[in-house]
Amino acid sequence: MPVVAPPVPLAHRRRTHALVAVVAALALAVAAGAWSLRDRGAGGGASAPGDASAVGPGAGTPTCAGRTARAPRELRGMWITTVNNIDWPSRRGLPAETVRAEFRGWLDLAVRRNHNAVFVHVRPSGDALWPSEYAPWSEWLTGRRDGRDPGWDPMEFMIAETHARDLEFHAWFNPYRGGQPATVGGPGPRLDQLAPTHPLRRHPDWVVTYPSADKPGSRLYFNPGIPEARTFVEDSMLEAVRRYDVDGVHFDDFFYPYPEAGQDFPDDAAFAWYGRRSADKHAWRRDNVNTLVREMSERIKAIKPWVKFGISPFGIWRNKRTDPAGSATAGLQSYDDIYADTRLWVREQWLDYVVPQLYWHIGFDRADYATLLPWWAATVKGTRVQLYIGQADYRVGERGAWRDPAELDRQLALNRRHGVSGSVHFSARQVRADKLGAVSRYSGTHYAGPALVPAMAHLPAAAPAAPTVTGARRQGDGEMALTWRGDGAASFAVYRVDGDAARLVGTARGTGWVDRTAPTDGSFSYCVSGLDRSGNEGRLSAPVAVAVP
């Protein structure tokens, strides 16, 4: 999970029963076939019959009822953390229906805050929130460490509920952690306290204990330097990719552990055997992590080419005083201290997105947000890797700059000035808590309406043909129910014209949507488009015009 320690370790009408008059007949003509990204690059994208228009790069200006169609493209998400029951479930061993109700609540929060993705902790420490052949059931769900089956499939449930709200589901894994410290109720350094089916009990030769067993934070790790252990860890995560309809695979900053004073990670034996071609143990450790990242990237795309792969690393790669290519900072360095060469992963384009954890305020002398943000923007420039920022909602209310409820609002404004493609907020509990009204403040400014996730041009592309709107009827207090037909789309975007532009007002995975903010009088129009799994948007439907007397 994202680092939650101190910043640099030196760490969201009136009732009417008026008759709705459909002023314009629904257009029946739609463009035939899918319109691919390749066609766009070749200069395709002529308008469809009627008022339908192509949407997306190279498609010209899309219009609905003669108005320019506008849809912000921005990833907006939050981490839902399971370890230590930080976010969900709220306690270990809750009844299944309570667990399900709590998860629906987190998704409903995401919808209210106009998010479009969730990052859900499904492998916190060598365990699983799905029936796995590689790992025991997570005690943070079941309340037990005996691996007993809870009798239902949380992963299947979570993905279905997430997609029903047209949110992306990014499965968040911790690759190498084998357990949690005893201080938070985990097994600590004791192998015999792991679940009987835990793979480290079957492969004690893969175990590394760090820090030492006499230290309070001691825990067990899979040894990153043993190739068989690495392959097993990859297989255990890829099992979820094969079996479930995940949108993304997500890692945080934990690979080799953060250093403890006076203690080296005890992997001498593995280095002696597997690192014989390297005279430098530090370089060997970095190569071990690089290999994991590269192999996961390749193997994910071999299984499901549309699944995104992203990592949320510690915010500092290297300080400029150590490396001229580094940032003007003075904090822990992921390259040197935890063997995470995050800059290489971006430059090699092993990632589809990167989410550096910039958990410091603007103006912090050792790690200034305003300094690190442009460094990361420059790092992704010229690559296909999208830059999102990990935002420190958990720090709101702390002493100093974090007592200003506008800090995160200013950070999101700075993100936009630097062309950042989105943000992920740590964590769900803080988004709900809305300390000092900070979440409401930045949400009102930056997330006031829905957004489409940024398209990834290098992923499979087959933007759907224009849908056909089949109905628009008033229901309830100020609500408009829309239905449409559309083939080949993973999701749909709904635009409404009630002024000088056609604005995105909603998204859906099915072929219907209810506009709960529809005008209660006057005339307005809707258009609908389809999107593929990679976020590529097809032509807009012909508009349907409605009038409320």
What percent of residues adopt helix (DSSP H or I)?
10-25%
* Number of E-type strands: 20
Assign an overall shape.
globular
Strand order of the largest sheet: 4-5-6-9-10-11-12-13
Kindly report the oligomeric state of this protein.
Answer: single chain
Give the arrangement of secondary structure elements:
Layout: E1 21-22, H1 37-41, E2 63-64, E3 67-70, E4 75-80, H2 96-112, E5 117-123, H3 139-142, H4 154-164, E6 168-173, H5 199-202, E7 207-210, E8 219-222, H6 227-243, E9 248-251, H7 268-274, H8 281-303, E10 308-311, H9 334-337, H10 342-347, E11 353-354, H11 369-380, E12 386-391, H12 407-417, E13 422-425, H13 428-433, H14 438-446, E14 468-475, E15 479-485, E16 491-497, E17 502-508, E18 512-515, E19 522-531, E20 544-548
Parallel strand pairs: 3-17, 4-5, 4-13, 5-6, 6-9, 9-10, 10-11, 11-12, 12-13
Antiparallel strand pairs: 1-20, 2-3, 7-8, 14-15, 15-18, 16-17, 16-19, 19-20
Helix pairs in contact: 2-4, 6-8, 12-14
